[in-house]
Amino acid sequence: MAETADDVKALSFEAALEQLEQIVQKLESGRAPLAESIAIYERGEALKAHCEMLLKTAEARIEKITLSRDGKATGTEPLDAN
């Protein structure tokens, strides 16, 4: 876990989530010394923010297929277009 916060930006969603899960397990176990707990908590915050950003980016790219009255695809529109 010696990677810096800048390294977090290069991680895929899955890799960041896996590291975040490991951090949570370690913190919940209570076995890490205080200084290490603080350091991995800070990394966890960076990983969480990265995962949230990746999810928001993915949500922005999802489109809804629009259909005509007879059920044929006519195009797409943003998923949250209300």
Automatic annotation (TrEMBL):
Cellular component terms (Gene Ontology): cytosol; exodeoxyribonuclease VII complex
Enzyme class: hydrolase
Gene Ontology BP term (one): DNA catabolic process
Keyword check for Phosphoprotein: no
UniProtKB keywords: Cytoplasm, Exonuclease, Hydrolase, Nuclease
Domain of life according to the entry: Bacteria
Subcellular location per the Swiss-Prot or TrEMBL entry: Cytoplasm
Major localisation: cytoplasm
Catalytic activity, as annotated: Exonucleolytic cleavage in either 5'- to 3'- or 3'- to 5'-direction to yield nucleoside 5'-phosphates
GO terms assigned for molecular function: exodeoxyribonuclease VII activity
Pfam families, alphabetized: Exonuc_VII_S
EC number: 3.1.11.6
Biological role: Bidirectionally degrades single-stranded DNA into large acid-insoluble oligonucleotides, which are then degraded further into small acid-soluble oligonucleotides.
PANTHER family reported in the protein's UniProt record: EXODEOXYRIBONUCLEASE 7 SMALL SUBUNIT (PTHR34137)
Family of the protein in this entry: Belongs to the XseB family.
Subunit structure comment from the entry: Heterooligomer composed of large and small subunits.
The protein's name in its UniProt record: Exodeoxyribonuclease 7 small subunit
Organism, scientific name: Devosia crocina
